[in-house]
Amino acid sequence: MNDDLVQQAHSKLIIREILLHSGEIKTSEDFFPFEKKAYEIQFKQYIKDSNLIKVDDEDFILFHYVAGFRALPTGLSDEEKENDLLDKVVVEVTAIFSAIYKLIEEIPEEAVVEFAKFNVGFNVWPFWREYATSTSARLGLPPFPIPLYHIPKTNK
Q1: d(CA 80, CA 70)
Q2: Which of 91, 119, 113 is nearest to 27 (CA)?
C-alpha cells in the first residue's frame, strides 16, 4: 500500500453515500428451505469499476463494488471442487453497491486506485453484511457468519 497516495485521496475525498445498485438471487430447482441442511459458503468481493461524475458543478467518484456468496452442499470431494461448480450451487446472492465520494480537489489516478483498493470495500462492508444476512434469512438458509473485512495483501 502506498500510504502517501491513500492519504492524498483521504484528504480530498468525502464519503457521500453507499447505495445498493443492484442485486441478484438465484436458487437451484431442488432448493427447499425447510430441509435444514448444512452448506459450504463461498464469498467473493471486488471493485467492478469507477467513474468520475459531474453533478451541478460538483465532482464525484462512483465505485461499483461487487460482493456475493454462494451456498454449496457440504461433503463435495476435492475432484468435484476442482471442476465447474455451477451445477452444484444451491443458492447464489450477488449485490453491487454504489460507493459515492465527493471530490473536493483533483487527485492523481494512482491515488484513486490506491484508495479504491484499501478503502472502498471497508466502507461498503457493513452494508454488504446486512444485505447478505437479511437475504439469507429471507431465503431460509441456516445462519452463517459473514467474515470481517480484510484489507487486501500487498507485496510490500
Answers
A1: 16
A2: 91
Which grid coordinates belong to 108? 492523481
In the chain the domains, ranked by start, together with CATH numbers, are 3-139 (3.10.420.10)
User: Is the dihedral angle over the CA atoms 77, 82, 87, 92 positive or is it negative?
Assistant: positive
**pLDDT, tens digit (0-9, with 9 covering 90-100), for 72-100:** 988 877 777 666 676 788 999 999 999 99
Q: How far is CA 81 from CA 39, 72, 73, 92, 109, in A?
A: 14, 10, 11, 16, 39
User: If DSSP codes are grouped into helix, strand and coil, which group holds residue 101?
Assistant: strand
Q: Provide the mean pLDDT of the chain.
A: 89
Chain centroid to CA 152 = 13
